[in-house]
Please model this.
Amino acid sequence: MAMHSDDDYMVTEEASVGYQKRTLIDHVNLHVKKGEILTLIGPNGVGKSTILKSIIRQLSLIAGTVSIDGKELSSYAPKELAKKMAIVMTERIHPERYTCYDVVATGRYPYTGKMGMLQKEDEEKIEEALTQTNTSHMRYRRLDTLSGGERQRAWLAMAIAQNPEILLLDEPTTYLDVKHQLDLMNLVYKLYETRKITVIMVLHDLNHAARYSHRLVAVKKGKIFAEGLVQDVFTEKILCDLYDVETSVMSLEQNGQKHLVCFPYDVKQGEKN
Model:
């Protein structure tokens, strides 16, 4: 069993996750510090999103434990957990008649009483979330009239309205063009900077993962394949072995900051059809 330190905020210990008792990935030992951005990367179908769903109790753990702030997840009441964590998922059901405001307002559910009535503080938090995500101007528009990027911002605003300590994002840039991908990732990073929240993401875009994360966890074939600081995981050898593709990694400087970027250029020898 992996050891964890006192500054670990969210910990999974020997967790096994999957569907209907069929394990997709086991021995998951994540140690997430408060106020950091951790991103899961890896091929499709290896269990990255399943890990997130298990963390929020959408799926039951097959084995192991998840704890937040020293308290096991299983001991949290639903509303108590919703005050700790919020998630933005790509595969959401879109309630067609909901307006953007309606969607964001649902983020206040953990704080409302039995009648579910919004109080002044709830309305202030909703307005704050709309402003931070630049969605105030579309508050009365129905969700089914919004573009993919606008819908993602609405879901993110809902998560912000929950006032969580941990924000989970499952492939948030899927279906978005390059501009809206950057808009969303810059917004997430700004939220991290201003709110000092902990962010756990699943991303397919490796260059986004390298640019916006503090640490990476690589998942392959039902195991944690590699983990560590971005510069330790984002190497040609690890990415080549992780995805079975030949990859070049280089450092580019932008606005005085250096960013690692990768360019996959061929299928790994021995993997070609």
